[in-house]
Amino acid sequence: NKTYNALSRAGMPVGLIDIHNKLVSFEMGICGQKVATSDDSTVIKDVALTLPRFTVGAPGRVAFTGNYGIIPMRMLSGDSLTLYMPQHRFGIALAAQAPDGVFRVGFNLDGFGGKSAYEERQDSGRAILGAENIGLSFGTAPHKYFSMDLGVYTSGYIDTLFGTKTEKKDGEEKMIRQERIAEIELPRVTTNIRVGDTSAVNMGTLDFTYGKKHFVYAVRNGLKSMPAVNDEDPQLPNLDPIITDSIRWNFVDRLHFIPVEEKVELNPSFSFGYMHNRYKRMNPGKDNQPMDYNGEDTDKRWETSSFRFGFGLDLLFANCIDYWNEYDRSNMKLNLTGKKLAEMADFTEKKKDFNRYATGAELAFHNIPPMNFPESGELFFNLSFQTLQESGLYDGYGTAQYKHLEMIGTDTQIERYTPWVGIQEMVTTNDFTIGMRGSFNYQLFELGGRIHFLKQTTTNPDKSDPVLNGPKYGFRFVYNLTEKARVNRVK
Question: What does pLDDT average to in each consecutive run of 10 residues of the chain (491 residues)?
């Protein structure tokens, strides 16, 4: 159930009930990466600390979790300046369920904030503050083979450029570089249905999400114009707000067979998914606030859509070796339905296909008879490799934490207004991973670590293909108090 539940599939806190099986869980961890181009013209590194993440509750009834972490991020840019931002992240979630499972409810809130600046120059910077997944979810799980949940959420953030360069004009000192970014998602409605259980022959989930985002952007740059963004007045500080209507659905199903009793387990799976986004550029309202508009510019509409399918096969041999393969394929389509955008891009529709392949194996040392492991302990060693292709239109593998790390300057959001550029970019990532994890005294303590060797290539229309290489690592320590561990301690 760690994968086929409302939390993992749809981000709904009621899913805590399905996966939380401990009285107390306390986790601390560290992860980081350092990737760079061969000439070190671009260097990205971070070290994220989880201090701490804890979960308490009664398994199957109540679960409460809270976390705090800090991610000190650094990026060396082409002008030899190091951009630094310690991003603070925190969150809480609560889920409760009636004894018979007929009703359950969950609440979630995640937040983040930080200030960024160049380490070599502290005269200007950016401040960001935001919240994610604030909302409630409700549902029912009357049987272990069925659950259905509904959630309503909102998210948003604001990013402001401060302390920017000034110039004297007509005897007065005036700011010539200003930027403010604000985005709010209201509402986001998600549903999730689960049928089956890990002990059943078949187990699947279906989730559906509708969301509406409002993006507003104010920028003034006295040094250059932005005709692609605002062709009527390049120096107008309030640029066109963007409204995005999105729908997404995903279906995942897993079958479970034991063709050779207690020797081989066969678990094939398949998945389908669809996503559609409709973008509208609005005329700014008087104060340029989210949901404050002065009509729409219908000549600047565009849409993106994607259909995805995948399949996988998991083989478990003698409860010792777990071997798996996965393949996904998706197509991305961009339609420039607005006349002005089609003229700028010189096309109305463009399609691109993307693939992902992954394989790996995990060895359970404690289940090998000659190892003579104690019953209360576990030890796993795993290897995996994956290669995946992604569109430049969206945040890709390993970049989610950097989506709010913007350069200290203006024009940072130009790519939002030029989707015909992003659709022509392809990001290809190869990831080879080695890991080890274990638990002791009936999972009273858990330790784990992994290291990734990454290679990421971005293919651009201008034929320049920057390549990032480097390691990524993670380690964690977990203290759990389970009912079995508690009884064992009392003995």
Answer: 72 85 87 83 80 85 91 75 87 92 93 87 83 93 90 93 63 65 92 83 90 88 43 57 95 84 86 95 80 86 94 91 94 92 88 94 90 87 94 70 76 85 86 94 90 88 76 92 58 49
Tell me the whole-structure pTM to 2 decimals: 0.85
Phi and psi dihedrals of 396, rounded to 5?
-110, -165
- Closest by CA to 209, choosing from 317, 137, 309, is 137
Reading the block at residue 217, the tokens are: 């952007």
Output the DSSP codes for 344-400.
HHT-SEEEEEEEEEEEEEEEEGGGSGGG---TT-EEEEEEEEEEEEEETTS--TT-G
Task: Give alpha helix (H) positions in 284-338.
Answer: none
Question: 3-state DSSP call for residue 266?
Answer: strand
**Helical ranges in 217-349 per DSSP H:** 339-345
Of 367, 314, 304, 310, give the one whose Cα is nearest residue 335: 304
Tokens linked to 85: 């931002």
Torsion angle, alpha carbons of 382, 69, 11, 430, to 10: -40
> Hey, what amino acid is at 61?
R
Strand 177-196 and strand 242-255: the pairing is: unpaired
Measure the CA dihedral 280/285/288/291, to 10°.
-60
State the number of CA atoms in the 13 A half-sphere of 440 facing the CB: 6
Respond yes or no on whether the N-terminal peptide bond of residue 187 is cis (omega within 30° of 0).
yes
Cis peptide before 52 (omega within 30 of 0): yes
CA neighbours within 13 Å on the CB side: how many for 278? Answer: 7
